UniProtKB/TrEMBL annotation:
FAD binds at residues 227, 239-243, 278, 379-381. Binds 1 FAD per subunit. The record marks 312, 366, 389 as: Electron transfer via tryptophanyl radical. This is Deoxyribodipyrimidine photo-lyase type I. It comes from Mycetocola miduiensis. Keywords: Chromophore, FAD, Flavoprotein, Lyase. PROSITE patterns: DNA_PHOTOLYASES_1_1, PHR_CRY_ALPHA_BETA. The keyword Hydrolase does not apply. Residues 4-133 form the Photolyase/cryptochrome alpha/beta domain. The lineage of its organism: Bacteria, Bacillati, Actinomycetota, Actinomycetes, Micrococcales.
């Protein structure tokens, strides 16, 4: 009987470790064809931003080399997945297709249609949980509705069946020996060329599974003790740096949870506190995804619909531009925005400060902030980015109360007391070359609160 290959379709799971789709194909015993499809055409699937494309290129290179080491090749194809996958399956005569699930509405619709179609053709198709610890349809309130507040959500997660143990990476993959064409990654032009603005990203990051595991190990052995105390201090490298690796699935949340639990076992004091706090942050990641699952338009539609009445003034393009370029004259804001531009990331505390500044002091719609982050963050994530922008703007699930307008100067005093983070990112701070503030903090705060009155009155 002719040998028929199994296809493993890689998406947001660019790893070999704890990859149930890959493991299922390996255990099935037939030769494996691994494929990544660059789908920029399917309706509703949001095209990647610039920093994300850079990361994807590097991550695919790393995944291809990992697969190669195990005996298989990564095939690259481009186009709408609903055309590309079935034609690959037909071309190689595959009898099975496996993938790990994704949670955006458009992505789920594509996957569901593909599942039906391939099964109708007699193909064995299965999908697996690999990117979230808790499947969104398994966590609901007593009334069967999705949670809108984090604390009860996370309590319900922790009271449900514990996440499975992570699976080890296969020691070998029997790669299919037949001919199968692949695109050339360079031809996808994911890397910036004219100009090549990715130098700072290259200095700051090493995409790929190996560095994700290194970062986790380093975090658990060296940073856990100080995590709870220092995680809000941007000048300290006190957090894990795992967000882009989690975003692209280079490391599994099951692996992160498992290793953190191991580190917590028997620990007391600051280590135990650090581990618990870190696991709660993974909980926020889950919450954001569950909220997106229930509200697929999270990047564009106010989660609290009364915010539809918010009276955004006409867009001040100069102010938006100054914010994007880190030229607002508010040092902590400029430091954050320049860190983002240079490295493709920004410390969480500073993300909140720049978000509050944009939406409240500058009265610029949170969607424009979300879009800028989408284009510039290496961890740009459909759920976490939209969720956190709505959180800071006050329109989101379990959001910061609107009237909590961050005062960037007080925030800087508290979290960057020696101005270390500001100096790292704004070398001309305190010189004549540094711009005057583009907005008066006290007056703009008052204007924001007055605008919010309209929302309160519309309820
Ligand atoms: P750690 O402190 O080490 O946390 C561990 C992990 O927990 C993170 O890697 C991340 O996966 C998760 N996590 C931590 N905080 C949050 C949070 N508030 N929401 C959801 N997950 C969290 N995170 C993204 O991954 N992608 C985004 O696009 C994104 N956009 C954001 C936009 C705004 C306006 C704000 C305020 C926050 C955003 N975050 C986003 C959340 C957070 O800033 C980053 O996850 C964090 O800075 C990553 O650093 P770390 O990996 O060192 O975090």
């Amino acid at each position: 009987m002719a040998v028929t290959p199994s296809v493993v379709w890689f998406r947001d799971d660019l790893r070999l470790d704890d990859n149930p789709a890959l493991m299922t194909a390996v255990r099935r015993g037939d030769p494996v064809v691994a494929v990544y499809i660059l789908d920029e055409e399917s309706a509703g699937i949001r095209p990647f931003g610039g920093a994300a494309k850079w990361w994807l290129h590097e991550s695919l290179t790393s995944l291809a080399s990992g697969l190669d080491g195990l005996g298989a090749r990564l095939v690259l194809r481009r186009g709408p997945a609903e055309q590309v996958l079935p034609s690959l399956v037909a071309e190689i005569g595959a009898s099975a297709v496996y993938w790990n699930r994704r949670y955006g509405a458009a992505e789920r619709a594509v996957d569901a249609r593909l599942k039906t179609r391939l099964r109708d053709e007699g193909i064995d198709v299965a999908s697996f949980a690999a990117s979230l610890l808790y499947e969104p349809w398994t966590i609901a309130t007593g009334q069967g509705t999705p949670y809108s507040v984090f604390t009860p959500f996370w309590r319900a997660c922790q009271a449900s069946s514990p996440p499975r143990a992570p699976l080890d990476a296969p020691t070998a993959v029997d790669g299919w020996a037949g001919q199968v064409a692949s695109d050339d990654l360079t031809g996808w032009a994911l890397l910036p060329t004219r100009p090549d603005w990715a130098g700072g990203l290259r200095d700051a990051w090493s995409p790929g599974e190996a560095s994700a595991h290194r970062l986790l190990e380093e975090f658990l052995t060296e940073k856990l003790d100080n995590y709870a105390g220092d995680r809000d201090v941007p000048a300290e490298s006190a957090t894990s740096g795992l967000s882009p690796h989690l975003r692209w699935g280079e490391i599994s949340p099951y692996r992160v949870l498992h290793e953190t639990d191991e580190a917590r076992r028997g620990a007391t004091g600051r280590t135990a506190e650090g581990a618990s706090r870190f696991i709660t942050e993974l909980g926020w990641r889950e919450f954001a995804s569950h909220v997106l699952f229930a509200a697929p338009e999270l990047a564009t539609v106010n989660w609290r619909r009364e915010f539809d009445a918010f009276p955004w003034p006409p867009l001040n393009e100069d102010a938006l531009h100054a914010w994007q370029r880190g030229q607002t004259g508010i040092p902590i804001v400029d430091a954050g925005m320049r860190e983002l531009w240079r490295t493709g990331a920004m410390h969480n505390r500073v993300r909140m400060i720049v978000g509050s500044f944009l939406t409240k002091n500058l009265l610029i719609d949170w969607r424009l902030g979300e879009q800028w982050f989408w284009d510039t963050l290496v961890d740009a994530d459909a759920s976490s980015n939209a969720f956190n922008w709505q959180w800071i703007a006050g329109s989101g699930a379990d959001a910061a109360p609107y009237f909590r307008v961050f005062n960037p100067e007080l925030q800087a005093k508290k979290f960057d007391p020696h101005g270390e983070y500001i100096r790292q990112n704004v070398p001309e701070w305190k010189t004549d070359g540094y711009p005057e503030p583009i907005v008066d903090l006290a007056a703009s705060r008052r204007a924001a609160l007055a605008a919010y009155d309209v929302v309160t009155r519309s309820k």
